[in-house]
Each structure stands twice: as C-alpha cells, then as structure tokens.
Amino acid sequence: MASTSNQNISNVQCPITIDFEPKNITNLSASVFPTWICLVVINVVTSPPTVLINSLVIWTVLENKQLRSNSYYLVVAILSLSDLLIGLVVQPLFVSLLICIINQCTYICELTMSCVMLEVLCSALTAVTTAIISLERYLYIEHPLYYQTSVTSKKLMIAIAVSWVLLGTVLPASRFLVNDSYWARQLPVILTIGLSFVVILFCVTKIHLTARRQMRAIAAQQEPVVQQSKIKEYKRIFTLGLIVLASVACLCPILVLKIVGAVKGNWSDDFRYISQGIYVTFFHLQSLINPIIYSLRLSDIRTGVAKRLCCNRH
C-alpha cells in the first residue's frame, strides 16, 4: 500500500515546474548526475561571497551621506539588493532543489515552485533595475537640462518600487496559468528580459559614444580640474558598460535557450535535464560579478568595501 501511495504522489505534476517534471525523471545518462553535483558545488562555494560583497556595497552606499544622495549610487545599492537576494535565498533553494531531485525527496514540488518563482522574479528584477540605471545615465549624459529639472532620487525610487511590485505580482501569477503551452509559460519572462535588454543596449550605446567623444574634447582642453570630475563621471558610465556585458554573458543564454526551446518544442532528455541548471547558475554568478565590478571600477565603492573588510578582520 505504501509503495502504491508513493507512486500516485510521484505521478502528480507540480502546478509550477521547470523544463522537465522533477518528480518523474527518466532515461538519465551517466553525465546528468555529475553535472548536477558540479552545479551544487559551484553554487555552494559562490553563495557566501555573493552575500558578503553585496552586503558591503549596500552598507557603503547607505552609510555615506554623499553616496546616498547620489541617484546613481542609490540605484547601484538597489541592484546589489537584488543580487544579495540571489546569494541569500535563491542559491540555497536551488542547491536544495537539485539535491532533492537527485534523491527524489518528498518536498520536490514545494521546492520547485519556490525556486522557479524566485528565479523568474530575481532575473526580471535584475534586468529591469539595470534598464533603469541605463536610462538614468542616458538622461544624465544626453539630456542634462531635463535630468537636472525632472530626475530626482525620489522619482527613481518610486519607479523602481512600482516596477518591483508589478513584477512581483504579474510574473509569479503568470506561472499559474492553466496552459500547457511552452510559449504561455515563458512569454512574460522573455518579454520582460528582452525589452529590458533593448532599453539597456540603446542607452549604453548612446552614452558610451557621447562619453568617449567628450573625453577626447576634455583631454584636448587640458583643464585638470574639469578632467578630474568629468573622468570620474565617465568611469561610472564605463562601469555600467561592464555590468551590461556581464548581463549579456550571463542572462542571454537564458533568453536564447527559452526562445529556441519554444520554437523547437522538445529537447533531448539529457539537454532538458542539464541546460536549465547551467544557465541558472550563470545567472547566479552575475550576482557575484556585479559587485566585484563596482568595487574594482568605482573608487568610492572600492574604498568603502576595503574599509569594511579591514574592520571585519579586526
């Protein structure tokens, strides 16, 4: 009777699932389990530094009144908050889910639902927040008069708060749609990340061209005081460019595979079992790469993070 009951439970599909049914894995090749174990190790190793360095970036910005009053650094702190959630919540859930799938434990369905919803939400939050940073820099460089009169830290916080609330409401709800279509389940994520990347690439391309042109003009003028302030400002722009490159490297595999999977329909079993864990891990790694870029490229962040690391050691 017990075995019959367990078999009936395993045949029930989760209302929210990944690219394969985690309670009914079949035809696994010899490469699947070692790949999952490798992904578990990578996420276990990178989760603590992700939490630590993002916490230090947020602490540095919030404790310093000058940084806290700067719109750019304030949005950086918010992006670090979304990255912090990846290391603090999402990566431990992802590790638990993989271990649970390997051992076919009782709580696969609950872990899958929690992990999928948070993965979808955090990837969208990261993309949208990066788009907002790009728009802020675009207006600052391309439309300075409008920026000075219309863009404030308060308005940026309201825009981010509204976007986070909307994403937190719409994206999880879309996963509960009673529809077996792959497109129906993936379309909200594709649209959110895809549109965000269009905004990001447009803004970053424009401001990089303008920044390089203005830097050449400043160098020709040979005015040290102007050079110092302008070059510091342009470093923020080039830092944003590095963040975008990291985002493209880490998030584009998700977008491409989602689109190809939706068009093609069915993957081979091995690819379905392995692919999602790999590109999700790439997304997790971005949450560690972002604060490292801030700390290396932005002197104010670098000084604050180094100071707090030294204080923690003592």
From TrEMBL:
It is found in: Cell membrane. Pfam families: 7tm_1. The keyword Transmembrane helix applies. It is a multi-pass membrane protein. InterPro entries: GPCR_Rhodpsn, GPCR_Rhodpsn_7TM, TAAR. Residues 53-294 form the G-protein coupled receptors family 1 profile domain. Keywords: Cell membrane, G-protein coupled receptor, Membrane, Receptor, Transducer, Transmembrane, Transmembrane helix. GO terms for cellular component: plasma membrane. GO terms for molecular function: G protein-coupled receptor activity. The chain crosses the membrane at residues 33-62, 74-99, 111-135, 156-177, 189-209, 237-261, 273-293. This is D(1)-like dopamine receptor. The lineage of its organism: Eukaryota, Metazoa, Cnidaria, Anthozoa, Hexacorallia.
